[in-house]
Amino acid sequence: MGQGVVLLNDLERWSGSDLKRLLDYVIDNQATHKLRLIGIRTDTSVTDKFGLLPDHLERMEYRGIPVAKAAWVRFDSMEFAFQPAD
User: Could you tell me what percent of the chain has a pLDDT over 90?
Assistant: First the structure.
């Protein structure tokens, strides 16, 4: 089995706390759906809402999940990368 991506668009109306609540729900309920969240890709506007700052190696994480900023991601969107749980 491979991996899949879920895209959330138009997050400009979401507050940082709403986005964190959604992410916490996804992370906390992965096993229920037999999935494992392996990464999040987003743009700068979303990471700013979270207050995520890169470490000295330019890496970011949210609750142990890698978060990558990418210029090609649609503005105000997040991509969740999942793979089947073992």
Answer: 22
